[in-house]
């Protein structure tokens, strides 16, 4: 018998759950795109996007996804043949570097593996060696969605400065924006970007690129920004269609207005971060109990061992032999869709089916988190996976504020 009828929960790390009010805001006829409410609404999005990224600098909107943001941000800050340094803590760094290489940018990877933090000192050391300042940018994925490792952007900035190196700091905030704390200006990030379909709770289709004056300066020497990708005309344009270099993503804009109302004007960005942190703490507490140390370390465990570098938006789990089974069981029996493991094991490796991910970004509540955890608990039991007890009690204790 399946218990998957009734409400469905999407707990993958993007796209995330779209709130009903966002969907309703989009359900309307096409608006006039030359004058009237849509124009005013679009202007109103810019300051709120800046609030979400905590920047007073520039915000642009592209019709596109995260890959578009990768391309947009690189195109505006680099010339063909430039070298960039890519600290790596998961497969999204590989994807970003590949985009750079396809644009004629040379990449140097600094691989920290799939389980440990980026080491800011190692980044600083590499920059000190680069006495000719050949490295133009450091490309840091803030939260790598495959491994669920969070980078310390502030510490990395401090190392770049301590090395006396002029490299720009780019942050891929696709998974983190609107979930994990992100303070672009305070942390000295020069270019940051995200899409709309993760923390910002709208259907995939828009990408946001934020940049400061140092990055604007780099635009002057870049030769990769073609008509569509150039951020200059898109920034505070006098003519409306320049925002998008063509027809705007009309309905997405209505959806985004609604989600930014929820995030910025109703809950408040700091409270949004705290909600995500609390729910993530409940989830991590549950996994700490479930973790099974009785099988030579080959049992259920969180991918990221150090709690300080765990994301509040996505969690990667190692479950040798059973990761795929558990995910399928939750989908078939509970109406809960968990994320697949991504790039954590080579094809054919015994760990290929040994991962799953929990997306907890955006429209998540205490109720949805406890439902997700209880569903996983049922799946572990149904599949006879060895696991510790007390997980749900530990999670609800965190939520009740009685963390032991
Ligand atoms: C989702 C994601 C991307 C890619 O976004 P798409 O919209 O799928 O192109 C890039 N980087 C990170 C960190 C992501 O989480």
UniProtKB/TrEMBL annotation:
Annotated GO MF terms: alanine-glyoxylate transaminase activity; L-serine-pyruvate transaminase activity; oxidoreductase activity
Residue ranges crossing the lipid bilayer per the database entry: none
Residues carrying N6-(pyridoxal phosphate)lysine: 198
GO biological process, one term: glycine biosynthetic process, by transamination of glyoxylate
Keywords recorded for this protein, A-Z: Oxidoreductase, Pyridoxal phosphate
Annotated Aminotransferase class V domain residues: 71-295
Cofactor: pyridoxal 5'-phosphate
Pfam families documented for this protein: Aminotran_5
EC category: oxidoreductase
InterPro entries: Aminotrans_V_dom, PyrdxlP-dep_Trfase, PyrdxlP-dep_Trfase_major, PyrdxlP-dep_Trfase_small, SP_NH2Trfase/AEP_transaminase
Binding site for substrate: 357
EC number: 1.12.-.-
PANTHER family: ALANINE--GLYOXYLATE AMINOTRANSFERASE, AMINOTRANSFERASE CLASS V
Protein family: Belongs to the class-V pyridoxal-phosphate-dependent aminotransferase family.
Protein name as annotated: Soluble hydrogenase 42 kDa subunit
Species of origin: Jannaschia donghaensis
